[in-house]
# Entry
Amino acid sequence: MDFSSKLLENAVNEMAQLPGIGKRTALRLVLHLLKRPKEQTTQLAQALEGFRNEIRLCSNCHNISDTELCEICSSNRRDGSIICVVEDIRDVMAIENTAQFKGFYHVLGGKISPIEGIGPHDLTIEDLVQKVAGGGIEEVVLALSSTMEGDTTNFYIYRQLQKFDVKLTTIARGISVGDEIEYADEVTLGRSIVNRVLFANSLKGL
# Structure
């Protein structure tokens, strides 16, 4: 692809680094921005810069937040005795959209995946164990995707938390095997949260 401008080429190359964005799509997006008022492009650049420089992780659940504690963890209307374990913020958003879960979350930051070089210590599993060990937690809901990596992570967490007096459950298999949580429709996901089952029972078919 030949460019008449080095500035245009640089912008396209940077845009093309985003997932799912090829060179042609990147060119179309960059040219669209060029046609818009300069103020809109400046606002976009400022929003991205502010997001990158000022965003933080909630000190309690590791969700993306603007403050030390995210809105969910700082709410006095949530049930602090229940923790829902998820992969990332997209899963938090998906479950929150169902309006069926009123506890707190714990964001792992990924799933165990030896192929990708991600082990238990690359995730926030140890923080979860310490949280449960501290007491006050009655139930931990394992809400990871029903993929091989998700099942492996669920089982690892199950083994780590077995020694504690805590109820370990998993979302019902209304979610098809191999599906990611974030892509499930709200009704199916909501029912899976409400009809969660003991994790130990889910192992019987394995």
Q: What stands out?
A: The chain has two domains: 6-54, 69-202. The helical segments are 6-15, 23-35, 38-54, 89-98, 125-133, 148-161, 186-194, 199-202. The radius of gyration is 21 Å.
